[in-house]
Each structure stands twice: as C-alpha cells, then as structure tokens.
Write a structure and sequence with these properties.
Distance between the termini: 55 Å
Structural class: mainly alpha
Strand content: under 5%
Number of helices: 13
Shape: globular
Radius of gyration: 19 Å
Largest sheet: none
C-alpha cells in the first residue's frame, strides 16, 4: 500500500497526470452513457465530475494542483465556443427565416434566467456577490467568467453554477420538451442552447443534428445577450 502511495505522489507531480485523468473520466462517463442506451440522466459530464471530485477527495489533492494539469481543457473552451459559429453560418438562411421568433425566445429565455436566478438566490438568503455570481449561470463558461468579473461576482462560483446548470439542462430538456409536445427540432435546440449552453448543446446533437445546430446558435446568442444585458440589469436593480 505504501508503494502505491509513493507512486501516486510521484505521478501527481506531473501536470499531464490530471489532464489524462480528466480525459479518462469523461471516457468512462461516455461509456456509461452509451451502455445506458443514451439515457439523458446518465450524463457523461456529470459522471466525470463525480469521478474527478471523488478522486481529488481521496488523494487529498487541491483544486489548484488539479487545474495546473487540466487547464488545457479550460483553454480549449474558447476555441470550442468560437467553433460553434460554424452551425450558425451553415444554417444562416434558416436563422433569417426564423429571426423574429428566435429573438423573442432569446429575450424571454435570457431575461427569465437572470431574474429567476436572483429571485431564488434572495429566497435562499443570498446577498451581495453571491447573488451576482448567479446572474450569468446560463451563459457558456468563458463568457460567464468575464461577465461575473465585470458585475462583481465570484468567477469560481459562477463556473460551478454554469456546470450545474448545463448538466441539469442536459438531463431534463429532452423529457421535458417531449412531455410538452414540442416536436420542432429548431425550437427544441434553441431552447436547450439558451438554457443549458455547451453541455446542453452536446446533448442536443445526440438527439438530432438540427437540434444541435440550433442549440449552438442559442448558446452563442445567449452568451451575447448575457454579456450585454447583465451589466445593465445589475446597474438598474443593485
């Protein structure tokens, strides 16, 4: 047992260890998702988060140490977000045809996300920077971090909330939209992207290509909407 701990101590000093562990954790989550028959509740991101959290706790590894090795994944969030402009370009004609209802959905969805987050935060007794950290939770991580910093929130808390929002959205959007009888994959995808950013978009692509494309569009539009409106919202009501 001592030898195993010694080996682990040696390996944990290398920054690539945690990048490798992160990739393997996601592959395990993806394998579980495939074995479940693509059930949304068996979300690969959720499973990988649980596995990584448990490993960090068992090995008494700080988040700073983990992030030093896994920060390449964080770096790739930026290019991945920019790459989602591709489905916007590929579906530009369909987007123009649906521009008015899409903008209406964006306004309602983005506004409700911020207002409901603040209302729930206040109901739970949160105040100050804790409440401010909730506001950009539905935006994709790179944008949410920047918005949180700009409005006086806690970026690290915002990132955690973004992940939780995305995982919950990825799990419930498909059964919820099915229950509501919404069959148009454009609307399903747009709603998922606005509410659950990148994680929801990944789930939408698993359901249907059109849903995934419009989820990517919804995520990009909501990121822009949040970046523009959140500071105004804070200025008016805080």
């Amino acid at each position: 047992m001592t030898e195993i701990l010694d080996i682990w101590s040696y390996l944990s000093e290398g920054p690539l260890l945690w990048l490798t562990v992160t990739i393997f954790a996601y592959l395990i989550g993806l394998g579980c998702f495939n074995l479940s028959g693509n059930r949304p509740v068996v979300n690969p991101v959720l499973i990988s988060m649980i596995l990584l959290s448990a490993l960090l706790e068992l090995t008494d590894t700080s988040y700073a140490t983990y992030f030093e090795g896994a920060q390449f994944v964080h770096f790739m969030l930026g290019p991945a977000t920019v790459a989602l402009a591709v489905p916007l370009w590929q579906n530009w004609q369909r987007v123009k045809e649906s521009a008015i209802p899409m903008l209406a959905a964006l306004f309602v969805g983005g506004t409700v996300s911020m207002v409901s987050a603040v209302a729930i935060g206040y109901a739970c007794g949160l105040r100050g920077e804790l409440v401010l950290s909730l506001i950009p939770k539905a935006a994709t991580s790179p944008v949410a971090i920047g918005v949180s910093e700009a409005i006086g929130g806690l970026p690290t808390l915002t990132v955690a909330l973004v992940l939780i929002t995305g995982v919950i959205g990825a799990i419930i959007t498909t059964p919820l939209l099915n229950a509501l009888g919404i069959r148009d994959y454009r609307g399903r995808g747009l709603a998922t992207g606005i509410a659950a950013h990148g994680i929801g978009t990944a789930r939408a692509f698993q359901v249907h290509g059109t849903a995934g494309a419009f989820a990517g569009i919804g995520m990009v539009l909501n990121a822009i909407f949040t970046a523009l409106i959140a500071p105004v919202f804070v200025h008016l009501f805080f």
